[in-house]
Write the C-alpha cells for this entry.
Amino acid sequence: MSVGAERVRIQRETLSETASLLSQLKDLMRHWGDESAERIYEDLQNKEGGNELTLAFCGHFSAGKSSMINLLCGSSVLPSGPVPTSANIVSIRSGAPRVLIYPRVEGNENESTPVETTPERLQEYCRNGGEYSAIEVWNEFPLLGKHGVLLDTPGVDSTDDGHQAATRSALHLADVVFYVMDYNHVQSENNLAFAKNLSDWGKPLYLIVNQIDKHREQEISIEEYKRQLENAFEQWGIHCVGILFTSLKMKEHPLNHWDNLLNLITELLEHREQLLQYSLSRSIHHTADSSLTAFREDQQEERETFLAELEGAAVTVVMEELKSLEEEKALLEELPQQSRASLRSDLDALLNNANLMPADVREAAGSYVESVSPGFRLGLFSTAGRREKEQGKRLDAWQGLLVREVSAQLEWHLIQLVRQWAENLGLWAEEAETTLKQGFPAVSQEWLAAAVKPGTGNSGEALLNFCRTLAADLKSQFRRAALLVGDELLAKLPSLIEEQRAELQRRDQALTRQASAARALAALDRAADARAHELAALLPPRRTLTPASCRR
C-alpha cells in the first residue's frame, strides 16, 4: 500500500471513530437534557463530514472586520460601515455564486428551510438581521480554495444578547480564530475579556490590530506599543499564536502585515487535516467541560440553600452531633431511675466507710451497759441514787462521743453529698438542707438507753456486736432521711426533663435538617461526579498541535 493510500485509510478510520464519538456524545446530552451541548455535538457531526477548515473572524463593529473579510474575498461580500450590518453568522465559501438565508425560528420549531438568493441581494438581508439566524455565501474566492471557510460573527460589542451568544456558539465550529481590534482600543476591558474567552477555547488564536495607520511613532515607538500589548495579554492570561498589524486604507504602510495574513491563511489551509482534528478535539472537550460546568451552575441555587442550612458546619461534625444527641436522649429517659440509683450508691459508699464506733465510743458504750446490768454495785455503800447518777454520767459520756462521730463522719458529709447530687441535676434548693437536717435521727440519751436490752454484753465480742447493730441502725436512719429528701427533689425532675426533652427536640430538628442538607449536597456531588465519570469514559485524550501546523 502506498504512503498516500495508507494516509487516506488512517484518515478514514479517524473520521469514523470521531463520528461514532460525536454520535454517542450527542445521545448522552439528549439523555441529560442538555439541549445546548446536544446542538453543538450535532453541529460538530455535520462539520466533521465536511472536511472544511473554518477561519472565524471576531471583533467590534468598528474594528473593520467586515471590510477585512471583503478584502480577503476580493469583492464586497459583506456590507461595511459604522452600523452593525452582519448581525448573524455568515459563512463564506468558494464556489458557484449563490446565497442561502436561514430564517430565524422560535422555541421548539423545526430547523428552518433556507431561502436561496443571489450575492447581489445579500446586503439588504444583512441589514435585516433580526429576521434570520445564519447566511451561507458562495462565490469565486480563490484564497479559500476547495476546503476553506471564512466565518463572520456578530460584533462582540453588540447590545443584543442574541448576537453575543451567536458569536460564542460559533466558536465551536471555528478551527482558527482571528480577533480583529481597533488600534486605539486593543487594551479596552471589553477587548481583553473577549480575547481571554477565545484563548480559553484553546483554538489557534491570532490577534489582528487593525488601523495600524493610526500609529504615531513620535508619540510612542512601535516596539513600546508591542511591549505594552504583550504585557496586557500576559496579565490577562491570553495565549495567542501571533499578533498581526493591518491597515486597510494604506496597503503600503510599513507596519502593514496584510501579505503576512494572506500567506498565513494559505499555510493554515495546507495543514487543514491536523488543524481540523485538533479543533474537533478542543470543541469536543470544551463542550463537555461546559456541560459539566452548566450542570454545576444549575445546581448552584440548591447548593446555596443546602449550604445555608448547614450554617458552615462540616458534614462529619453534624453526623457526630446527631449520634451524640441520640445518646443524650437515651440518657435523659433513664435519668430518674439512674439518678435514684446513683444517690443510693453514693450513700452506701459514704455510710459503709463511716466508722461510728471507734474504740473510745465502744468503751463508753460498754461502761454504760455495765452500769445498767443487774448486780452493778458502787462499793460497799452502793445505793439506788448513786447507781442512777453513775448511769447518767456514763450515758452522757457515751452520747457525747457518739454524737461527735456522727457529726464528723455523717451529717456534714451527707449534706454535701446530697447537695452535689442535686446540683448536678439542677434540683437543689437551700430549703432542702433544712429538711435534710430535720430528718436526721437524734442521737438522744433516751434512744441510746432504750437500745440497751437486758442481757446486752458489756465486753468482748458481745459488745462489738451490740455496737455494730447500733451503728447500722443509725446509718439506716440517716440513709432513709437522705433518700426521703432525694425523692422530694426528684419529684421536680419530670418538669426539668420535659424542658430538656424540648431542647433536645429543637436540636434534633436543626441537626436533622442539616443532615438532610448534607445528604442532599452529597447527592448533588454524586450526580455531578457521575456525569464527569461518564464523560471521561467516552472522551479520548486531548489532542496537541505541533508548531509546524500553526505559523506565528
